[in-house]
Model the fold of this input.
Amino acid sequence: MELYSNTIGKNPNASLTIRTFPDGNHNLQQARTGGLREMLQASEHRASDGYYEAMADWLRTKVLSERT
Done:
């Protein structure tokens, strides 16, 4: 998060949105450890809590609002 804030986030023409999902791994799936073994052994892959809502909000504000 710090890397993006200090690079892309410093560009006044960039559109940067940073969200973190405490229960998620690098693939934004619910995880306890975030480790590769956990991901490979998972019987189902569920998105992190709030991920779909965050994407819908981003699409509404960044994509749909720019088209109108």
Observations:
- The chain has a mean pLDDT of 86.
- DSSP finds three helices and no strands in the chain.
- Helices lie at 2-6, 36-41, 51-67.
